[in-house]
Amino acid sequence: MSVSATVPHAVDRIGLATVLLVALGLRTALGILQPTELTHDRDAYLGIARQIAGGQGYSSPASTTPTAFRPPLYPLLLAAAGSVFPWPAAVFLVNSIGSTLLIVGVWLLADSLGLRCWQRIAGLLAAVDPLLVQYAGQPMTESLFAGLVAMWLASAIRPSTGWRGDSLTGVLFGLAVLCRPTLWPLAGLYALIWIWRLAGGIRAGALRAACLRLPWAGVVAAAVVVAPWALRNQMVFGIPLLTTTHGGYTLLLANNPVFYRDVVSQSADIAWPGESLQSWQTDLAAAIHTELGPSAGEVAEDRLQSRWAWNYIREHPRAFRDSMGYRIRSLWRLAPQGQATGSRVWLSRAAAGFYLILFLLAGAGLMRVFLTGNVQRWLPLLLVLVTIQSVHLFYWTDARMRAPLVPVLVLLAVLGLEGLTSRRRAAAGD
Description:
The chain is mostly helical. It folds into 2 domains: 3-244 and 332-429, no CATH class; 245-331, no CATH class. The protein is built from 19 helices and no strands. The chain has helices at 9-33, 45-53, 73-82, 87-112, 119-127, 130-135, 142-156, 163-179, 184-203, 207-213, 216-237, 247-253, 257-264, 274-292, 298-315, 317-331, 343-371, 375-391, 406-429. It is globular, with a radius of gyration of 23 Å.
């Protein structure tokens, strides 16, 4: 059932427009207050985008060497916007598109999950999320990825609308994994679910019917979206890479003896000291050069680093266990690590307070999902939660890695809030 079937269009549009204005207003203010952050290229996305816009192809910054170190969607969008606007405006535009998709996705999710009365609260929680506001002012994927995940979820939880609806869901999934590959294991979880359904069809003697119920159009649509990236990598690197050549590094970054010694084994959780990290990176580059030579290429380096990481995990199970605990705490940290000064102290405390309340409400909402037998309805959101947490048991983790979980968390939070208010009304009625 659509929103317009139960509430006036004007009220709904006003609420959505208000939430969007809050989200874009906060991000505009941040861009004005911190204009240099819009081009502070920590992850080389902007550098790759400049190469594309300059006709050098998808190559490493300041070179003509093809790369697959970063996923392609965000740099491609930056390059398109940067061909028309100055680079700071291009970053702001692409991130604002991501923020808009997030709000719209959360709005649609609240409607589909029976939380229509809580749409504005859910939208506002997503709009003011401190991490997403912060990273909307930088050339990083958090805003776009969170928005694509929200839109994919909104499409995935709807009742089937035929091949067109399934195709849209597949397209959104393909775009999401091209923005950040973290979501790829979700496809494996769905594959297991579909295999289970096929097995049920075999037991019931209705295999053909079970096959026809599978979202083949969505699978094909996702494959069509991802295929150009895989084909490009086949032509450039000789391998149809669906992800990036960055995974081995991030796995090794989170599983090595220096990280364990200087970070995990400390008495309190700390960020990796800059001097220690830089020294480790220098030693790593030298070790790769010694092992592979000067011109091995990204794919060989990625595989080598992945092999070193898995060797360390197998040989040091206790260190790996302790590191997993550190990564879980890092993903769910209330406030950024590091020493805040001046006004940032209050901002850090405000962010911590926001997340403390959000997590408590989301926890209450998660309990309601299971206690009320609503797991099937919420399954796509729960699978995203499981996927992101599972990936970051192994790979490098900090709080910004939970950006794709924002739509899940805010919907669970308003479900928890609905439960609390319903209980108070019931108590008042008694």
